[in-house]
Design a protein that fits this description.
It is built from five helices and eight strands; from the N terminus they run H-E-H-H-E-E-H-E-E-E-E-E-H. By secondary structure, the chain is of the alpha+beta class.
């Protein structure tokens, strides 16, 4: 168990990076590196399924907008019809807690899953991992509270029935002949929540824009999550954190 002084020291580091870039790495988070590698492997196995199987879980069939998103879906900039992002996605929301009131959190309990005979073990593994991510987010916002000179438990009530979505983003091999010069794997964007716990594979390619509006590389570091702040936290802090 860390001391308050140790947690405040880390919180100061978080404050500095949240003001200047809004991206940082965390290690020592308690999720084994072997599990992180397994999660990446599950993603490859899911996206390797026949398109007909993935389309059974298409987001358009689910009122909670969970499930599979094919190439060109969900584009906040409205250019997807002409120049779709070259990515597929799969979204999974957390299960409801035993004491959770109906509607307490957006999309909770509305995940859809491949049939057990199509991808055995996927649902069990990803539900367990998503629960760990939610618990990690609850710990992380305590550090963020300290970084804002707030009581450490300031956000606890909001995170009792937190929104929690695990999203796979899959980038098929890019064909430079077919792709237009202005197309992306994933268009530049900000996330809309509070924090994203981002797990990268070993290929890299992620960039973030810092306070000087320079795009800098966010290289994958084994065993870490890259954390990026979302629009909600920027609003909560009156644009102090970006």
């Amino acid at each position: 168990e860390s001391s308050l002084a140790e947690r405040q020291r880390v919180a100061k580091e978080i404050r500095d990076v949240c003001i200047n870039i809004g991206f940082f790495y965390i290690s020592g988070h308690g999720v084994p590196e072997s599990e992180l590698e397994e999660v990446i492997d599950w993603g490859h196995r899911f996206f390797g399924l026949p398109l007909s199987e993935k389309m059974k879980l298409h987001q358009s069939l689910n009122k909670g907008k969970q499930g599979f998103v094919s190439v060109g879906g969900i584009d906040p900039y409205g250019k997807s019809v002409v120049e779709p992002d070259i990515k597929e996605r799969f979204a999974m929301s957390r299960d409801s807690l035993p004491d959770e009131p109906p509607g307490a959190s957006f999309n909770t309990g509305e995940a859809v899953w491949p049939a057990a005979d199509v991808l055995p073990g996927f649902e069990v593994a990803l539900k367990a991992h998503l629960l760990k991510r939610c618990n990690l987010a609850r710990r992380l916002v305590r550090a963020i509270a300290l970084s804002l000179d707030l009581p450490e438990d300031f956000f606890d009530a909001m995170y009792r029935y937190m929104g929690g979505t695990l999203m796979y983003n899959y980038y098929p091999p890019a064909d430079s002949v077919v792709m237009k010069e202005t197309q992306w794997n994933f268009s530049p964007h900000t996330d809309y929540g509070v924090v994203t716990l981002l797990l990268q594979d070993s290929l890299g390619g992620l960039q973030a824009r810092n306070a000087d509006e320079e795009w800098i590389d966010v290289p994958p570091l084994p065993g870490t999550f890259a954390v990026n702040l979302g629009d909600t936290l920027q609003m909560w802090t009156n644009d102090l954190y970006v």
